[in-house]
């Protein structure tokens, strides 16, 4: 009898895992097909923080990015939630579909994307008003990289990472019955996940929002932090790397992949396409 029950649960678990990975793969395909995507670390086709996009389209791309980058790392938590719910259904208890939990998780990241778009737009406006040179903007980006590295070493990062690395403990301590309970659990897990990873996504602004290589590296780091036995050690190694790279960018701004060739800088979006149009501009720092 136990084996008869275990087999359907294993099949369901495998089906959920395959679906999550298929969605992540489809999201990666969409990102690679996006006109502004750059598979390498070179000059970005769209180096404006908001990519010259209005909020709805920016959010759509952001959600696709979250599916691509976060679903592999979130899979253990989602599978644990599904396993518990499937067991409840077999015992004749109240059952809630796993998508409710996932919806709460994605809602947190969608709201984070809205905040990211607003902050990026504000940063663009302030940079334009201050007439920042590309060199100055790149050095600010280097500072962001250093800040992300330092955050990797904080107690808050450790606390959030501990929650994400322990699906069973999270389910046992945060369980709520019903659909609202599942949604609340998804929101809570999303909040812990956001607290763990938010600065790793902020660095995409100086590295290039559509820099596929940077996205892949961040995805691999997040997956390693959350699932590998040496995850905490990986977080600290990443901290050293980010701090070192940020210092290099401050010293040598051209080391940043979004640094424009010839010292030009991205200008506001073209009214017809909604994409930022690069215009050449001599950097005073380079002229000297």
Topology, pairings included?
Blueprint: H1 2-33, H2 55-90, H3 98-130, H4 134-151, H5 155-165, H6 167-174, H7 178-202, H8 204-207, H9 212-227, H10 231-251, E1 265-269, E2 276-279, H11 284-287
Antiparallel strand pairs: 1-2
Characterise this structure.
The chain has 288 residues and is mainly alpha-helical. The protein has one domain (12-256). 72% of the residues lie in helices and 3% in strands. The protein is built from 11 helices and 2 strands. The protein has helices at residues 2-33, 55-90, 98-130, 134-151, 155-165, 167-174, 178-202, 204-207, 212-227, 231-251, 284-287; strands at 265-269, 276-279. It has a two-stranded antiparallel ribbon with strand order 1-2. It starts with a helix and ends with a helix.
Compact description:
The chain is mainly alpha-helical.
